[in-house]
Amino acid sequence: MSQPPSPVVASFAPPPRPPSARPEGVSAHLGWEAILLVGVLATAVLVASNGTLFQGSMPWWRIATVGLLATGFALSLRTATPNLAVGAIAVLAGAVYAEIAQDGGSGVLAGAVAVVVALVLGLVLGAIVGLTSAPAWAVTLGGMAVAQSITLGMLDGLSIPVPRSTAGTGMAVLWTFVFLAVSIGGGVLWLVPGVRKVLTTNRTLDDPVRYRQTNLIGALAGLGGSSALAGLSGVVVVTYLGAANLNGGENLPYAVAAALLGGVSAFGGRGGIAGTALAVTLLVFANYGLVQTEAPGWVVYYLPAALAILIGVVVSRMLEARSGPFTATPPPAVPGLAPPPGPVR
Fold first, then answer.
1. N or C: which end of the chain has fewer CB within 10 A?
2. Phi and psi based region of residue 195 (left: phi greater than 0; alpha: psi -120 to 50; beta: remaining)
């Protein structure tokens, strides 16, 4: 006599975890930042033993100006809207500052106007990216050309002199602390779940052409904020040099290198706390050491940034692997249409 088949017991998988923008991989970023800290200390000891690293204001001005620019670019990377125009916007802001200051205007007012000009340009670029879903790198390349054109028209090949900062090392250290506060403070703010949830929607998990209203917020914050910080960097550069000219765009490779080497994801949405600040310091110290060795110009000014960018890309990919799948809030469903696909894991 055959036995009746055993009843089939349905096995239920646990319900899927709702999508979120949680801080995956923070421990991996902190581990990398510890390695960077060791590198900074070792480089400082090595360079200081063979030169005058901590004498004079030049290294601190360099950390402050490159750091503000790098912090701006890092912000745009975190929001997945990389702003390739930050270097050109910094030069434009410096020209605006010099133009107003040269005519007898207040230095504070001139600096404020210059930063506002940079902010407005960044917000325009952010609006284009957010409303069209166009890649930020393409839009900001256009913004770079616009900024360079305006700067060229203002300077007309000339250099605009301005009163140079007379505060010396003290003012340089002050601006360095401003950069550290903004960079590290921004990294801490990024740990807040609500901040990440709002600003990481441009790291696309579905069709990149699809219009998403939430992307506009991230694009405005990323491109507007990065442009404002670039503008502040440009103002600090001009106050240190005592003149505005067309040179200064060479800081862009160092800003990109510091953000990537510091652990900010090239894919957007992720980043550590103090990585950008540590990477900026490491690159500036290493560059200062190369200057002291009287190495060729191409080695001093371009090779460190190039190598750091390539290493930073590898670091970014390794941190992504250690952090696990990225999750983000999916775009809202459209009435009458199939719901959008869930997050890719």
1. N
2. alpha
- Residue 248: enclosing H or E segment and its boundaries? none
Q: How far apart are CA 113 and CA 222, in angstroms?
A: 20
Distance, CA of 198 to CA of 295 (rounded, Å): 46
The rounded Cα 317 to chain-centroid distance in angstroms is 17
How many C-beta neighbours within 10 Å does residue 8 have? 6
- Give me the helix-helix angle, 107-132 and 136-155, nearest 10°: 150
Number of helical H runs and strand E runs in the chain? 12, 2
Cα–Cα dist 94/344, whole Å: 43
Q: What is the pTM of this model?
A: 0.84
Residues 98, 103: Cα–Cα separation, whole Å: 9
Query: pLDDT for 119-161, tens place per residue?
Result: 999 999 999 999 998 999 999 999 999 999 999 988 877 777 7
User: Measured in whole angstroms, how far is the alpha carbon of residue 3 from the centre of its chain?
Assistant: 69
CATH code at 26-47+58-323: 1.10.3470
